[in-house]
Write a structure and sequence with these properties.
Oligomer: heterodimer
CATH architecture of one domain in chain B: 3-Layer(aba) Sandwich
Distance between the termini of chain B: 31 Å
Number of domains of chain A: 2
Distance between the termini of chain A: 50 Å
Helix content of chain B: 25-40%
Number of strands of chain A: 12
Largest sheet of chain B: 10 strands, mixed
Order of helices and strands of chain A: EHEHHEEEEEHEHHHHEEEE
Number of strands of chain B: 10
Radius of gyration of chain A: 19 Å
CATH class of one domain in chain B: Alpha Beta
Strand content of chain B: 15-25%
CATH architecture of the largest domain in chain A: Roll
Largest interface: A-B, 21 and 25 residues
Structural class of chain A: alpha+beta
Shape of chain B: globular
Shape of chain A: globular
Order of helices and strands of chain B: EEHEHEHEHHHHHEHEHEHHHHEE
Number of helices of chain A: 8
Number of helices of chain B: 14
CATH topology of one domain in chain B: Peroxisomal Thiolase, Chain A, domain 1
CATH class of the largest domain in chain A: Alpha Beta
Helix content of chain A: 10-25%
Chain lengths: 311, 430
């Protein structure tokens, strides 16, 4: 495995250019353009940093978190975003970034992470796996503080290319997060607890606080060439917004799985629903009018709570 | 129903360190800060999932969107969502007034435990639409036809972009709080030196309180701040003497150091009945005994704007059958050093006590060595609605350290109002 520690976050724009370059026919023949080969390179990128409280505050505001002394549980993912891009834009990477679909994300918060804590972020891709609709790989992100692993995230990306239908069941061979689809079945029946009106500029506002300026989130004009009728909400924004809605009920240590379903077109109106079965919390986001599922997820505490939840 | 009022226990408090305006908390809203203060209190006393009788809180500078600030903050904490909450607003008296309200309900047996709290930000201040613009928009909204709306819109002027900013000024006199206090200072002939001395003592006392660990279970760090930002442990009369006056003109005695700075912060206090405290295995820091508010007419009767506590205190003392000297500790909110000194002068003054308070004898002097022993607002800063909670928790802890004794609190507020209260140590007054 090749491990590299970066001195500063890489600049995003050149990475976008490189990640998008495989769209040009023949470009992948060049050594610095991704899209050749069949295997994900064994690389790991690392970065030492301390979150900027100002940026945490604006991120918290856009996602609906209260401004606390610890990071929103989704925030380290934003810190790792430049590394995610650098991995995907690596010349040895077999897939171009354009057309990659984020289908699942699992975050494990081992404890609350203080806003002022110095963190080491590491990102590594996993091997390609067959999927009913194409191939998947995951970006595994770990954040540690003083050598202690405090936070992990696994983002599963799908590249639609026909896939290997004959070999794999609908959701891939090794779906780890069975709870998610269970949760979803329950959620579709549960009543919505909130309606969120999402403004047309939500993608741009999230881009400003996350650094992720993927054209599909920015504007209808930039989303259209990539196959969307309008800009779509960022999946990690939607996940963050759900956790913000459940903030007062989140334990210190927990795992949260979400499955991204149909994209949310902006502007739009969506419903949020959650239900709790013991310590676990299931939640879902769906279209306010036609119930199209956008996201479903489940939160599981990692430790027994110090005190019983009183009803 | 209960036959007689129950004793009300102060279990403890929590606040975030107070910050100077437009500094470390400039991105934090009142709701963020109040949630943080409540979160810390919940963690300190194991109130996760607890359904309390009520949470009373408030803010002086409040956004219209924060109409249920306290309730929304409660919903952001780990308290049971079934805990009711309401907002109170009584200028700088807000924090102490919420304590009195919660305590009264506990005393009457209506609730068993509750939280009194408050937050204020002068950084994330509510800036309103220009008043003229608001008028045009409302008129346009009332029009029935499109033509009517268009006609109203022709009244728009470029000057309407200037927003309406909250001012630290009395609506009926047009004078700032500081300007009012400067008038009081000159009426009561309060000198520059004694004001500076009070300010220096405030800083030294608060610094000492932090040094000996007194603040450890009263304050939780927030956004990287661990101590009150305004605190100057090395403050000295010589340094303060160099500052020019900010109120009362060139001859004024009030400076930036002997007046409280604009600040951001939040505080919360947990109160409960004796039985609730026992059931939850929580020790009693102090007993809340009584409270009193008063108001004066600063508009027509030439009363000093911040003199209402001078009236509230004797009313409370008479009811309890106590003298001003019957207290072991005094907490007088240092809005301005001059306010504290004017209040003390008034209580010592035969004419004021006779003519204004209708008493044969003055209330008399207090032992200054018992005043604001763990620092005051001049050192800590003064986020308006958070000051009451800071003082109640700190005084309760000081009484717990002593074991027994009495402590008095006096807080002046805008609009010519004042709130006072008194506490007793866990072992009573013997």
């Amino acid at each position: 495995m090749e491990t590299r520690t970066l001195q500063s976050p890489p600049s995003i724009l050149p990475l976008y250019v490189r990640a998008a370059a495989p769209m040009i026919p023949g470009a992948s023949l060049l050594p610095f353009v991704p899209g050749r080969g069949n295997e994900v390179p064994e690389i790991e990128l690392g970065l030492d940093l301390t979150p900027d409280p100002e940026k945490v505050a604006t991120y918290a505001r856009v996602c609906g978190f209260a401004l606390r002394d610890h990071l929103p549980p989704t925030y380290p993912h934003v810190l790792a975003f430049p590394l995610h891009m650098a991995v995907i834009a690596d010349g040895r990477f077999p897939l171009g970034a354009v057309g990659l679909v984020h289908i699942e994300n699992r975050i494990v918060q081992r404890r609350r992470v203080g806003t002022g804590e110095a963190l080491t972020i590491r990102v590594r891709p996993t091997k390609l796996e067959p999927h009913s609709k194409g191939r998947t790989f995951s970006l595994v992100t770990e954040a540690s503080a003083g050598g202690e692993l405090v936070w992990e995230s696994t983002s599963t990306m799908l590249r639609r290319d026909g896939g290997e239908k004959s070999e794999t069941p609908a959701d891939g061979p090794e779906r780890r997060h069975i709870g998610v689809s269970e949760a979803h079945r329950q959620e579709e029946e549960s009543a919505a607890s909130a309606e969120w009106k999402l403004d047309g500029d939500l993608g741009r506002r999230y881009a400003a606080v996350s650094g992720d300026r993927n054209p599909i989130h920015m504007h209808a004009l930039t989303a259209k060439p990539l196959g969307f009728p309008r800009a779509i909400a960022h999946g990690m924004w939607t996940k963050a917004r759900c956790l913000a809605a459940l903030e007062s009920r989140l334990p210190d240590a927990f795992a949260v799985d979400v499955r991204f379903r149909k994209p949310i077109l902006l502007p739009g109106r969506v419903e949020f629903a959650s239900s709790s079965d013991g310590d676990e919390i299931d939640f879902a986001v769906r279209d306010a009018k036609c119930d199209t599922p956008h996201l479903d997820g489940r939160i599981e505490p990692l430790e027994a709570k110090p005190k019983d939840e009183r009803k | 129903m209960i036959d007689k009022p129950r004793r009300v226990a102060i279990i403890g408090g929590n606040r975030i360190p107070f910050a100077r305006s437009n500094s470390v908390y400039s991105r934090a809203s009142n709701q963020d800060m109040l949630t943080a203060a409540l979160d810390g209190l919940v963690a300190r006393f194991g109130l996760e999932g607890e359904r309390l009788g009520e949470v009373a809180g408030g803010a002086v500078l409040k956004h219209s969107r924060d109409r249920d600030l306290t309730r929304e903050s409660v919903l952001g904490t780990r308290l049971a969502a079934e805990t009711p909450a309401y907002d109170v607003q009584q200028a700088c008296g807000t924090g102490l007034e919420t304590t009195i309200l919660v305590a009264n309900k506990i005393a009457l047996g209506q609730i068993d435990a509750g939280i009194a709290c408050g937050a204020d930000t002068t950084s994330d201040a509510p800036i309103g639409l220009n008043e003229d613009l608001r008028g045009v928009l409302l008129d346009a909204n009332r029009e029935k036809s499109t033509w009517g709306r268009v006609r109203q819109m022709t009244r728009l002027r470029p000057s309407h972009v200037v927003p309406s900013i909250p001012r630290n000024e009395e609506p009926r006199t047009g004078l700032s709080m500081g300007a009012h206090c400067a008038v009081m200072a000159s009426e009561w002939e309060v000198g520059r030196e004694e004001q500076d001395d009070l300010a220096v003592r405030s800083h030294h006392n608060l610094a000492a309180a932090y040094e000996r660990g007194f603040m450890e279970d009263l304050v939780s760090p927030y956004l990287g701040l661990e101590r009150d930002q305004n605190l100057r442990p090395d403050s000295s009369p010589e340094k303060l003497a160099k500052l020019g006056p900010v109120f009362g003109g060139e001859e004024g005695t009030m400076t930036a150091a002997n007046s409280t700075p604009l600040s951001d912060g939040a505080s919360a206090v947990l109160l409960a009945s004796e039985e609730w405290a026992k059931e939850h295995d929580l020790p009693v820091l102090a007993w809340f005994v009584d409270g009193q508010t008063a108001a004066i007419d600063h508009v027509h009767k030439r009363e000093g704007l911040l003199m209402a506590p001078a009236y509230a205190m004797p009313a409370m003392l008479d009811r309890a059958g106590l003298y001003l000297q019957d207290f072991d500790l005094y907490e007088i909110h240092e809005a301005f050093a001059a306010q504290v000194l004017c209040t003390l002068r008034a209580w010592e003054d035969e004419r004021f006590c006779r003519d204004r308070l209708g008493r044969e004898k003055p209330l008399g002097e207090i032992d200054r060595e018992r005043l604001n022993l763990n620092g005051g607002s001049l050192a800590a800063g003064h986020p308006f609605a958070a000051t009451g909670g800071r003082i109640v928790a700190s005084l309760a802890k000081a009484l717990h350290e002593r074991g027994s004794g009495r402590g008095a609190i006096s807080i002046c507020a805008a609009g010519g109002q004042g709130v006072v209260a008194f506490l007793e140590g866990p072992e009573g007054t013997s």
